[in-house]
């Protein structure tokens, strides 16, 4: 390179190309770092003959000679082809290192393609089922004076099936909002027509025909008789001594939330407030996920008259009451999170006292990605208190997923283990908690909940003083002291 009036020494282009290739192969993009490596890195010193260009010279070489560098690389490929070096065998050329760039996201195998196609197909089926259910209750004429046309073109068995219906803008909005938590990407062809059809490919079954609106008078009870008797369908309960192992038991639907599940969870957590025999609750999900959020099939097919009252807020208040009961119950709750924990499922984990994540755990506040607010089901209350306002703002304003490793780094979870080790990890926490007296364990959860929102240090310490006097008056305090001195496990009585 010529000095060009800069005062920098001239270097042969071959020397500069060696530095460029060294940086490319070793992922060193900074010209300043290459400047520091040139006089101290043995490999680079051998390549350049101990020449050490400054960072400005290196940067200018890359900026000015982009076309020449690409030409050299292409000629090298031609040379390798002529020499027959591109085979499936490993070769070495003059001690040089050759590396193939293979982005994992763009690496496709037959299994990956099949898995992705099945995922897309399932998402399309879910979306079409939810859409058909919502359209059953859509008015045949626009009620707000604003009409819109919805056209779906479906490819099924190499045939095209089109369905058009006139809907009000409010009804169309409700159809889209109810498509939660999984709905496929749809695209509108830009044909210049105002009502160009939305095309969804690879659907296996055509859209179901619209059914006339059916008025329902009798409402189903939100909590079934079986749930009132402690017999559950959407959740499973296993009692192991003083510990309840609660499982969200809809594995085929990724444990998505239904009205039945909400009713059973509300009944269970409400009854815990009066349950002296249960000291700890371990909450988990069956199958591949913890809880994927709201079940759109159940939510979309619900009869208007069967919607729970929920304090006047309908299903919104009905579900929100579950999280309040989780915090109100005196038993500590340990959540074992694996797979997806989205929306309301994410809130289940946040409302727990201890969270343990499997390596596959992925959590997010999915509400905001559907045109709703991310402030839902207590997420705006729990999340900033667990990870701080900055990280909570990022997750809630973007709807991004947080994986297990980052959840551990931000303090959202206490531990990350392999998915098949979640139960064993929870057992160690359970055993340590059972070493506490029943009242001491309850008072600690209550004190933590009140201290988080305490108006002052004095207010928090007033709760602490009250709790210590109450626990010290229990016979279990003397038993705990004796067990500590005798180095044995305490034998507490219910208090």
What does this structure look like?
This protein has 19 helices and 13 strands. The protein is α/β, with parallel strands linked by helices and 495 residues long. It has 4 domains: 70 residues, no CATH class; 90 residues, no CATH class; 208 residues, 2-enoyl-CoA Hydratase, Chain A, domain 1; 52 residues, no CATH class. The strands form 3 sheets. The protein has a 6-stranded mixed sheet, with helices on both faces. It has a 4-stranded mixed sheet with strand order 2-1-4-3. A hairpin with a 2-residue loop joins strand 1 and strand 2. 30% of the residues are buried. About 17% of the residues have low confidence.
**Strand order in the sheet with the most strands:** 5-6-7-8-10-13
Q: Compute the gyration radius: what is it?
A: 31 Å
CA-CA gap between termini: 86 Å
Structural class label: alpha/beta
Query: What is the count of DSSP helices, taking H or I runs of 4+ residues?
Result: 19
CATH architecture of the largest domain: Alpha-Beta Complex
The CATH topology of the largest domain is given as: 2-enoyl-CoA Hydratase, Chain A, domain 1
Which spans have pLDDT < 50 for at least 5 consecutive residues? 139-220
Find the count of extended strands (DSSP E, 2+ residues).
Answer: 13
